[in-house]
Amino acid sequence: MSDKAIEVEHLECQIGDKSILKDISFSVKRHESLSIVGPNGAGKTTLLKCLNRILAAKRDAVRIFGNPIEQFRQSELAKLVAYVPQGGGLLPFTVYEFVLLGRYPYFSPFSSISREDEEAVWAALCLTETEELESRMLNTLSGGERQKVLIAAALAQTAEILLLDEPTTFLDPKHQAEIIRILRRTNLDNGTTILTVTHDLNSAVVVSDRILAIKDGRSVFQGQSAGIMDEQVLSEIYGQEFDFVEHPRLKRKLAIPRMMT
């Protein structure tokens, strides 16, 4: 199996008559953590959906572990790539039932739930610290609890690649920190390759190995996380000036949008 979890070469994606992604190329190594940043409307979510084949991209532009994504049956792809979309509907399931749905790539018609399925669900609940919620209905959960359950369902797939679309958006600082800690454990302890779309630039720099920045459907930065903390680079990406401070504990440069006073 290739040491590259994902390889993207000259990726293009069009929705209707609008070109969303334009000639994007990058790769992600196995066990790596990559954050995808950029302004609103840059094409970040579209990119994730192309990597999960929710949206069709230019043929042979995406490879998963060295194989063209078109070669996989959907159940095969789901065993390799799990996706946590932004938000999520309130489906009429308990937490346990919803997380169990993450095992769908392993189900066959008329089969019963296996011990392996149960163990995978329980491991995901424990990792996300949602085991005490297992009998609760999804519509009774707080936003932070619901986000952890969405991640648990993806982890129950036991896929080697995890795609997340803004997993901490609209969460309070406590739940943001919990989600980040869960993803760090998933990456460092379990070796899961993680791609995260985020608007939290500082968090991306702290927790990710590398960053990919997209603007107007094109890649405008690729490199080690610390490398994006450059005034010229950030100005090109966001059209905004920044001030910089040093994290008091981690000693890493962080960016603060410059306010007009």
Question: Which key features would you list for this structure?
Answer:
30% helix, 4-stranded antiparallel sheet, globular, 12 strands, 2 domains, 261 residues, Rossmann fold, 8 helices, alpha/beta, 6-stranded mixed sheet
Overall description:
Helices cover 30% and strands 27% of the residues. The strands form three sheets. A six-stranded mixed sheet has the order 6-7-8-3-9-10, sandwiched between helices. A four-stranded antiparallel sheet has the order 2-1-4-5, with helices on one face. Strands 11-12 form a two-stranded antiparallel ribbon. It folds into two domains: 139 residues, 3-Layer(aba) Sandwich (Rossmann fold); 71 residues, no CATH class. The model has no long low-confidence stretch (mean pLDDT 93). β7, α6 and β8 form a beta-alpha-beta unit. The chain is an alpha/beta fold and 261 residues long. The N and C termini lie far apart (55 Å).
Q: What is the rounded Rg? A: 19 Å
Major beta sheet, strand line-up: 6-7-8-3-9-10
Low-pLDDT parts are: none
Q: Characterize the biggest β-sheet.
A: 6 strands, mixed
Average per-residue pLDDT, rounded, comes to 93
Strand runs, count: 12
CATH superfamily of the largest domain: P-loop containing nucleotide triphosphate hydrolases
Strand content: 25-35%
Order of helices and strands: EEEHEEHEHHHEHEHEEHEE
CATH architecture group name of the largest domain: 3-Layer(aba) Sandwich
Overall structural class, as computed from helix and strand content, comes to alpha/beta
> What is the CATH class name of the largest domain?
Alpha Beta
From the spread of the alpha carbons, the general shape counts as globular
Distance between the termini: 55 Å
- The number of domains: 2
Tally of helical segments: 8
